[in-house]
Amino acid sequence: MSDIAGRPGFEDAFHKAAERHERAWVFVTLVMLMGILACTMYFVVYDYGVVVRTAAYRSDPTALGGPAPGVVPAADAGLVKTGPNAYAVHMVAHMWGWTPSPLHIPEGATVTFYVTSIDVLHGFEVKGTTINVTAVPGITGEVTYMFKHAGTLDIICNEYCGIEHQAMLGRIIVDPKPPA
Ligand SMILES: [Cu+2]
């Protein structure tokens, strides 16, 4: 074994140190990959439900049984039954809140949200779920979601919409199924 810089055993020590570093970095990479996988699995397992479909169209919300343009529905307007275990609701964004809220949903229900805004752009996001629809004045966005678990979910606004944007909160309460 030749020596670098005239020091006996230097090359051996150098290779051993390099190997140690390589192993350490392979380990760090594996830990990061496992972290990403764990986050993904967590969301797959613990997500509150699944998006069934989404759509967006220009429309007069009254054609869908919703409030007239510019009108905020009643705060306690609930779900409208559209089929077995299926419901619809018109969710209206306004500076700075969501109506109707709080919104009660039975556990296991599939709910179609018709989302619009009466003033500026807002973002309809339900924390802990994959619901994320932009609320645009004059346009109805549609998202259908199946709520698998009972619990309380927060509605937030994810498009900056003015001075009280960060306080623009709503609430969805998924009521547990009565015992059969
Ligand atoms: Cu907003």
TrEMBL record:
Molecular function GO terms recorded: copper ion binding; cytochrome-c oxidase activity
Subcellular location: Cell envelope
Residue ranges of the TM segments: 24-45
Record-linked CDD domains: ba3_CcO_II_C
Keywords attached to this entry: Copper, Membrane, Metal-binding, Transmembrane, Transmembrane helix
Major subcellular site: other
Listed InterPro entries: Ba3_CcO_II_C (IPR034214), CcO_II-like_C (IPR002429), Copper_CuA (IPR001505), Cupredoxin (IPR008972), NosZ/Cyto_c_oxidase_sub2 (IPR051403)
Domain Cytochrome oxidase subunit II copper A binding: 84-180
Cellular component GO terms, alphabetical: cell envelope; membrane
Claim: Nucleus is one of the keywords in the record: no
Protein name: Cytochrome C oxidase subunit II
Species name: Lichenibacterium minor
